[in-house]
From TrEMBL:
<dbReference type="GO" id="GO:0005524">
    <property type="term" value="F:ATP binding"/>
</dbReference>
<dbReference type="InterPro" id="IPR027417">
    <property type="entry name" value="P-loop_NTPase"/>
</dbReference>
<dbReference type="GO" id="GO:0016787">
    <property type="term" value="F:hydrolase activity"/>
</dbReference>
<dbReference type="GO" id="GO:0031297">
    <property type="term" value="P:replication fork processing"/>
</dbReference>
<feature type="domain" description="UvrD-like helicase C-terminal">
    <location>
        <begin position="433"/>
        <end position="519"/>
    </location>
</feature>
<dbReference type="InterPro" id="IPR000212">
    <property type="entry name" value="DNA_helicase_UvrD/REP"/>
</dbReference>
<protein>
    <recommendedName>
        <fullName>UvrD-like helicase C-terminal domain-containing protein</fullName>
    </recommendedName>
</protein>
<dbReference type="InterPro" id="IPR014017">
    <property type="entry name" value="DNA_helicase_UvrD-like_C"/>
</dbReference>
<keyword id="KW-0378">Hydrolase</keyword>
<keyword id="KW-0067">ATP-binding</keyword>
<keyword id="KW-0547">Nucleotide-binding</keyword>
<keyword id="KW-0614">Plasmid</keyword>
<dbReference type="Pfam" id="PF13361">
    <property type="entry name" value="UvrD_C"/>
</dbReference>
<keyword id="KW-0347">Helicase</keyword>
<dbReference type="GO" id="GO:0003677">
    <property type="term" value="F:DNA binding"/>
</dbReference>
<dbReference type="GO" id="GO:0000724">
    <property type="term" value="P:double-strand break repair via homologous recombination"/>
</dbReference>
<dbReference type="GO" id="GO:0043138">
    <property type="term" value="F:3'-5' DNA helicase activity"/>
</dbReference>
Amino acid sequence: MSSKNKFPPTAEQQAALNAALEGHSLKLIALAGSGKTSTLVLIAHALCQQPNRYGSRKVGKYLAFNKDIAKEAKQKMPVGVHACTFHSLALSQCPAWMKNKLKGQAFHPKDFIAHYNLKDFSVRTFSSPAPGAPKKNGKTKVSGFFQKRIIDAGLDKYMSTAAKYPAERHIAEAVRELLPDVIEEDQKNIVLRLFPLAEILWNRYTNEFDELGIGNNHNVYLKYWANSEPIIDADFILFDEAQDADPIMLGVLLKQPSHVQVIYVGDPHQQIYSWRGAINVMQALPLPSYYLTQSFRFGDNLAKTCQPILDRLGEANTFRGLPDTETLVDGSNKLPKDIDAVLCRTNLGALECLLEYEKHGLKAQPQNINVKECLDMINNLHEFSLGRRPLKHPLLSSFKSYSELQQYCEDYPGDQAIVPFVKILEQYEYDIISSALTRCQLSKIDDFQSSDGNEFDLIVTTAHRSKGCEWDRVMVHGDFLDHFFDSGSSDKKRKSTTKEEYRLLYVTLTRARKKLYVARLDWLLKELGDINLTVKDGDADKSKDNQNSMGESA
């Protein structure tokens, strides 16, 4: 790849380049659409021209959390830089037996309960019980399914940390989050009861001679690799999306030899994975900081729309868009006819959106959602609900009845592989769901490339999965409101909204290039700041040029 840039670097980009050439570790804070990838490519080319301590040219490693972002970087980085995800780097350095565990079957909660003979027990509560845990005579029942949920959550917390071994504190964190209304003494008893099982499970995951697989839990081999204190073969490391790093990733980088330069790159306001233990490296590390605050994706009016959100998140800089480009921010309630993508807050919202458009005769295509797996699950659930055994689905075969499955969904609502589909089947007719998913499967989008525009009318995805993408015309789905206001509240009563919700809203709004339709969110945005939203009654431009494209990451 040529190191020539289409445009000369901006003053901000040049400052970052000059700092990188000095050889010290630093932070590059890049707001949405601010040319982060082109800046990294510029830095990578320059560093690859420098000699390393042995006199040969430097070689680098580009690391990202998201595989699509790493794939894009691989096409743009110079020959001397290897681009991959943290997980793929870890897996490539794991022994064969650990790789084989990915193919092995992990414990289904029901099988785990039977194997370790977990019995339901009751604990005392202060007031109301945790969601999904029925309250009887002032007590909360902790079912076997709920116990397995606590163990899984505790191990997830451990695997995101720099700790060498699982500890009681990881289970204790899970208990406090999942059973906040249980009195402290009983919380401690739950930890004492479940930690030994969590320790056993981890030891089995990491035992070469144990046949238990890890299923689709990629964090197991990542943690196993990190515990070996690996040395990354590179003179410099470009760590992209650093705001989404968890302590385990940061721990690996901080243990690299002192001669290895690490450039942490990201947007602290796009940290949207704190639920899996991510820490905001861009704010936590005491390193020199350089900023990219000029977005090249959209006009200045959209940047101004985002500024009140950034202000709430503590951003001291002014976010700027392209001064000569207009990005329409439309707050009308009418359904526009020129949408390229609808971004939803949740997976359930995305599936509901897909089915609603299907009912209105619009062909919506899910992006970054495995349609085949969705259809397979829906078909098996439908059969099960009619009293017939699931065909061959491994997640359903251990349930004796559909009512037992429904009870499991109440006790184990965190199971995203089953629960959202049960809810969808309860809300929509099976024929509508099956028809929509079958059509989507036949016109599937791969790797962010759209079809010729005739097979579907628009794309539906979630805000989390939209990160790193951009479209000309974006509509924000109304399910965001549930995370800012109490549902059903006539006076729009505000919730105590976490900073992560504001960060996710910022990510969502900044996916648009030409038009952003905010629909039901218009008054929320107006409340956040003095924003002028266009309310447009007529049909908008119906052209479908650039229906979907992969923009610069974040």
